[in-house]
Amino acid sequence: MDEEGREYYVISDLHIGGDEQLEEVEFLDELLEFLDRFEGTDDDVEIVINGDAFGLWEFTTVEGTEKLDVLEETYPELFETFRRVGEDVQITLLPGNHDHELAAYEEYVDRLAAYNIDLVQEPSITRPIGDREIHFEHGHQHDPNNRIDDWGSPHATPLGYFYNTLVTSRAGRLSDRGRYNWLKDVQAVTPTERMPIWLVSKYFYREMNPVLRYALVPFLLFFNISILLALLAAADIAGIWSMPVERTTAFLGQFGTAGTAVWFLLAINVVVTGVILLVAIPLYFIRRDVRKTIERFGVLETSLTVDAEGPYQPAAREVFEENPDAVIYCYGHTHRPLVRDIEGGVMVNTGTWLKRLHRRDGAIGILPPVFYPSYQLAAVRIAETADGIVVEYEAERKPSPATEELTRTERFFTVGREPEPDLPERVVIDPETGEATSPSA
Question: SUPFAM superfamilies from the xrefs (predicted)?
């Protein structure tokens, strides 16, 4: 098939498969719809799956190519769709870090070819776009925690491998034990450092006994006010300042029983908060001293955070310098859709089809943050037009699962602060200069 005038549709980070509850693919219908649109097309199209199509790291009960056996048995409709659509358009698959094993066994090439999937067992590929080129790679090679130094080795186990086999896979096996099947969403928690506070959030809003939770909510809501009142009470005791207790009592008394209840609630909060502050002061100094000791020994120097841009700008510049024909550096891995115009060309991140969790901190008090779910099922279309090289995002529609997955308390505390899924605007790249010259449609 002639590649002149070809248009490319790029997706990545599907993470399909894994132990037990990780088998569930919540966007499977939308993925099938996306693929089906290319069946029987006369257009010159190539679909590029730019890494992490499958969650092979998340399988811990089978090894090697047996993982493909499980995938075929679990998702027969998906593989049959690949077979049908691949008769009309080229489907190219690059390994990511989660499915790096695709590069480790030659058998995968032939077995995926049976479904009309062209598996390229290399870290990157290029494709022509007019007189220029697109550079495709998953991007994990620029993440120190997921870099594969021995490419193609079945024994490659960077830090991210252990996190996913020990944490993510375990979550898949335990998820259905919760009050709601939420623990499997651990693979959608980014950056990874957010996992502890995410677990605290889900425990508080989902797993905690409702009676206990509703008893704690008023205390947590008024905590900031209670700190102020506790400090003022301490100043009153020390003779520094006199609290207007009678005026406060008279003011709240105007509201009858409700005012009295608020007064007693604040009084209890002040007492509890005062005790907490007394304990917190020595604990703060102990924590600070322990942290300094840990930093001195360098125990916690490794960060699990995936920087969505930092490492990729120099990587893109290096690609543009080494290959003057390259005008687009297309990657995934960070799960953050992005278009960035840099010297020499344009960076394009394809995002993820996994659920996105948007942190919403409490507006008042010290309530745990709410992680609001949404989907951005994006495909990046890259094509040559009369105006230049077009890069635009097309999204399969899927409503937020917030109604089913968030408790009433979580939904109440995020009213008016629901995330609005947005994707980068369409850009048109000047093939001569490599600059994005048209930021809007």
Answer: Metallo-dependent phosphatases (SSF56300)
